[in-house]
Amino acid sequence: MRAEDWVGELQELGKPEWPRYLEEHSGLPGPRANLPLADAVAKVADREAVEVLLASGGEYPVMCAAAALGARADDPADEKAARELAADERWRVREGVAIGLQHLGDRALSELIAIVRQWVEDGDPLVQRAAVAALCEPRLLRAPEAAAAAVDACRTATAGLAALPDDRRKQPDARTLRQALGYCWSVAVAADPGAGIPAFIALDTAQPDIAWIAAENRKKKRLASLLSSASTGH
Question: For residue 56, what are the domain limits?
């Protein structure tokens, strides 16, 4: 079912019924959660629904609540709650925040860019990860200001990772940020090659984690072709 179909289903239910309904249709346990349903929740959940889902404690309902909060993160209270969930120990919940922020970007791109600029300066690698993962989405980067912001976010997050002590970079949250930067750079550079290629080439690959990030992105066809063209002057 599409997100639009799930919206209709949800609107026929009382809010207290949402957690059970979401659990039943989550697609879990399984390899992939029901993302169209999470998208639907992000679109229609009000504050009451979010509170009910958070109180349930279930991973998928909380993921959906995180998506709803991310989608409304132009509200300061919802931004604060979304930022907290971006550092949740459950990866699906963290992904819910990124999904929601992308919905915010569809509706109010400048608000998303402002949030990304704040979050990418956060001391928590998981919050930084949410910022770059949310913005480095091709559909959001058609606007030049978003593409430029994505390059800046990748550069800032990479510098933050590089500045961590060696043993700190081995921790799971830092590894999660590294993993995201291993593909986000290629998305950002493809959207804004003029600024992105010089920023990417300037990465200090003497540091092993940064070298890994650069190598992973170079494997992406979208970036490999751009770098090849840049090196040959075409």
Answer: 1-107
